[in-house]
């Protein structure tokens, strides 16, 4: 069975210590992203057939006892799965598979607000993953299916005017998977 494991690596290179190992919060998550003291999990299956969260957030302030904070589906019941996400501060760049890219704000009151959707873009497919440049002005993202799609470079400096600025093909017919 699957569990969420949290590991203290401060003792490396000598040893590591598992400080949490349980399926009490969920059975499985496709992807995770840690930003500060928050764990963002995409495509979450709950334990014992208890349901599904498109994306969930957990508090890691005390890593030996993580706490569930919010399910994206509570604020957006028809959001669909979040295959992967990139988070910076309170901004979540969520790859929603066939539904494209959505950018959310994770609010101080543990709710989500939709900032913008980016769908029906040039050479689009199953929106798979993304990464933000250190200056927070450019997001590079990939579409997994169909094969052969390029990575996309998106200017996100103004959420009111998202602009596809470039595409990247590493090899003809290759599919960019993770940024």
Q: How much beta, percentage-wise?
A: over 45%
Shape: globular
What is the subunit organization of this protein?
Answer: single chain
Overall average residue pLDDT: 93
- Unreliable stretches covering 5 or more consecutive residues: none
Q: Could you give the distance between the termini?
A: 29 Å
**Structural class category:** mainly beta
Using only CA atoms, what is the Rg?
Answer: 17 Å
Give the count of helical stretches.
1
Q: How does the major sheet shape up?
A: 4 strands, antiparallel
What order do the helices and strands follow? EEEEEEHEEEEEEEE
Number of strands: 14
Helix content: under 10%
Side by side, the strands of the main sheet go 3-4-5-6
Structural features, described:
The strands form 4 sheets. The chain has a 4-stranded antiparallel sheet with strand order 3-4-5-6. Strands 7-8-9-10 form a 4-stranded antiparallel sheet, with no helix packed on it. The chain has a 4-stranded antiparallel sheet with strand order 11-12-13-14, with no helix packed on it. The model has no long low-confidence stretch (mean pLDDT 93). With 179 residues, it is mainly β.
Summary?
With 179 residues, the chain is mostly beta strands.
Reconstruct the topology from this structure.
Elements lengths: L3 E5 L8 E6 L5 E8 L2 E8 L6 E8 L7 E5 H4 L8 E5 L2 E5 L5 E6 L5 E7 L8 E6 L5 E6 L7 E5 L7 E6 L11
Antiparallel strand pairs: 1-2, 3-4, 4-5, 5-6, 7-8, 8-9, 9-10, 11-12, 12-13, 13-14
List the main descriptive attributes of the protein structure presented here:
mainly beta, 1 helix, 4-stranded antiparallel β-sheet, 179 residues, 48% strand
